[in-house]
Amino acid sequence: MPEQKFSGLPRGSFRFLTNNARKKQRMNMQDTSVFDANSPQARAIARLFYFDLAISAVIFLTVASLVVYAVIRFRERPGQAKPFQDPGNPRLETLWTVVPALILLTLLVGTAYTMKIVNPPVVHPAPNVIVNAHQWWWEYRYPQSGVVTANELHLPVREKWLLQIESADVIHDFWVPNLAAKVDAIPRNQNYLWLTPSREGIFLGTCAEYCGRQHALMGIRVIVESPEKFAAWTRSQLRVPGKPAGPEAERGAKLFQEQTCMNCHAIAGTQAKSTVGPDLTHVGSRQTLGAGASPNNLEQLTAWIKDPQAIKPGCNMPSLKLTDSQARDIAVYLEALK
Ligand code: CUA
Fold first, then answer.
1. Sheet strands (E) in the chain
2. Is the distance from CB of 172 to CB of 214 less than 8 angstroms?
3. Which of 13, 98, 108, 230 could be stapled to 9 by a disulfide with Cβ–Cβ 3.0 to 4.6 Å?
4. pLDDT reading at 256 higher than 80
5. 207 lines ligand 1 (CB under 6 A)
6. pLDDT tens across 113-140, in order?
7. Quick check: is 6 in a domain?
8. What is the CATH number of the domain that holds 138?
9. Whose CA is nearest to atom 1 of ligand 1?
10. Does residue 31 form part of some domain?
């Protein structure tokens, strides 16, 4: 058998990575890193990391230098007698029991202190956002205002908000590295998370628990805005869309009701009230489609409606076998829902 050289990555993957970076640039995304902390909660986690890293570095350097010293200083030499065998040394044994115990205690205190900052207490206020994970998208409900949206979480800057995280199907995990800790989304269970974004901007996250075929396309966009912009966004999300304008949009709205779209989706002010799939009342105002699968524009939305399985194979939206013009009419109708 010819020897196979292992290159680490399958062929073409570097091209995929550069394409992906370009795609990110195009879509105005920033890179995510736990070291670029943008909330008191993320900063507490980063601090704990550096603290633990420093302690581990001291331990590593101490143990490694002692090992190297012992290997050189006490190596076997010709004609030398067997070295002295120490059957037990109470003083040393006490020392190497007490010192690691103290180190572990220090790590425990640091972790408990961080958890107190990151995790809400058992008795906590009502949540500001209910995050419901689905295969493979995120539903966000704002109980105070009544806003329902998908995949793009809008938050006001510098306000301490409580997120309630749950799941509609399997276990997912809500993770926005710049802003907060990972929190599991578990069916029939509620987890909570404080989130106080310290600056405006778009922060990207992803599902961090394998949840099926499209786990990789379950992106989270957190859009942090000034209180004024956030209030304006809330008002626009609560507005009930008016009648579709133009012949294409009118045909699209009719098709939306006739086809099976409304079995899964809701649009305020229409007969469509299902909550199986994402609420589409303001779908035109979102930046991406399919939880970050593609940018949101007329061409992409038409392609998505025509054959969602081509863009996100395995997703729960079937291909409805529409003609090109039917798909486009529906897309025109939906894109106008800002
Ligand atoms: Cu949802 Cu992985």
1. 129-134, 137-142, 147-150, 152-156, 161-167, 172-175, 183-185, 191-195, 201-207, 219-225, 288-289, 294-295
2. no
3. 13
4. yes
5. yes
6. 999 999 998 888 999 999 999 999 999 9
7. no
8. 2.60.40.420
9. 172
10. no
Chain position carrying tokens 């419901």: 132
Which residue in 327, 326, 333, 307 sits closest to 318, CA to CA? 307
Cβ 165 under 6 angstroms from ligand 1: no
Residues 113 and 201 placed together within one structural domain of the fold: no
Measured in angstroms, how far is the CA atom of residue 216 from the centroid of ligand 1?
Answer: 7
Buried b (16+ CB within 10 A) or exposed e, 78-102: eeeeeeeeeeeeeeeeeeeeeeeee
The Å distance, Cα 244 to ligand 1 centre, comes to: 35
Lowest mean pLDDT, pick from 23-27, 29-33, 126-130: 23-27
- The number of the ligand 1 atom at minimal distance from the alpha carbon of 185 is 1
Residues in the chain: 338
140, 219, 214, 206: which is closest to 173 by C-alpha? 206
pLDDT, position 27: 54
211 lines ligand 1 (CB under 6 A): yes
What's the total number of domains in the chain? 3
Domain assignment present for residue 248? The answer is yes
Residue 33 has pLDDT above 50, yes or no: yes
Q: Tell me if residue 147 falls in helix, strand or coil.
A: strand
Instruction: Confirm or reject: Cβ of 217 under 6 Å from ligand 1.
Output: no
Tell whether 177 is covered by a domain: yes
Domain residues for 45? 40-73+88-118
Residues 143 and 112 in one domain: no
Token representation of residue 34: 């736990």
Distance from residue 32's CA to the centre of ligand 1 (Å) = 18
- 60-103 pLDDT, tens per residue? 999 999 999 999 988 888 888 887 888 888 999 999 999 999 99
